[in-house]
Amino acid sequence: MINREQAEALIQEQLINTIQQDTPKQSVFMGMARKLPNMTSKQTRIPVLDMLPMAYWVNGDTGFKQTSQQAWDNVYLTAEELAVIVPIPEAVLDDASFDIMGEVQPRVVEAIGQRVDSAAIFGINKPSAWPADIITRARQAGNNVSPGSSPDYYNLLLGDGGIIAKVEEDGYMCTGALASMGMRAKLRGIKTTDGAPIFKSDMQGSTQYALDGSPMYFPQNGAFDTSVAQLVVGDFSKAVYAIRQDITVKILDQGVIQDPSTKAIVYNLAQQDMIALRVVFRMGWALPNPASRMDSDRTGCMFAYLEPATAVTTKAVTFTVKDNASTPVAVEGAVVDVDGARIKTGSDGTAVFNLRAGTYTAKIKKTGYTSVTETITVASSAVSKAITLVAN
Predict the structure, then answer these.
(1) Tens digits of per-residue pLDDT, 40-76?
(2) Are 159 and 153 in contact (CB under 8 A)?
(3) 131 and 218 both lie in a single domain
């Protein structure tokens, strides 16, 4: 008898012509934010209303009419580049039973979307020229909600003091929500006092999750950082982005590829009979936050988030602003802008931010004084920064 082991070299394996894989996921942030016209240069300037005029009652027939003013500020979109090179030996391409290039390209596009979401929403690997991420902006505005030891998710999300209420108190309406996949079970578990579920699922068809009428999305591209937030809500139409260079794919068959750190040549495409798939994408984004009647100081935020059970560690960064008098006096009402997150100094001249580790750019200004720009580095301890404003 000739058994299977002896005839193994003659037995052909069947190859299924479909690769078992998940469908590539796109950027959730770019799907929800507002797209501006494509950028024509590296930086785009957006004029933003910074100060609103006031009106005053006139006291009596001969009373004096008061004056007011209006001011504008600039918000910048800076295009930063996402890119990757995937080298492949030509012999591998020739011998493969599948279109390798066709399989790689959608996955690279997926990776680009994941990087955009991580940077814009959570600040992960954020380019230094980009503004503060959505979580950081919401945190400085006080729009973070802790679940506590015995969370009541209905009130945490929809009740007074919940995350939706935080956004509304700053004068905005929620247009959408992003949540971790683990949040689905928590929503399904919310019940009334008599035990009936509040978030009902249709057992006969798919159910679209929503919060207070706003659609809810559960990103599956790996960008949602559950160590920072469980759920993010806000007016996503106020976040804007623009593309400087759409996703561009180029096949390289000449040149060398160097290690970014050591500069050593890793591949020589011509000498090693290789090609490389190069993908490049450039975009910028901003959260302009113009002055409104409900947020005239521009210190509010149109986003809020629910923290995880153990909140991410932040450090207090205290700015103390004084004038340049011979005996310095605290400057009240100075605007401290840290990468787009704004807080006004109190009567003691201080403004306190709660920031994660990283390097930030702070701009301090007030009408009648020369503006000051400082670089702040946050590491493992609290930071105190003394600022002197020089009167014009």
Answers:
(1) 999 999 999 999 999 999 998 889 999 999 999 999 9
(2) no
(3) yes
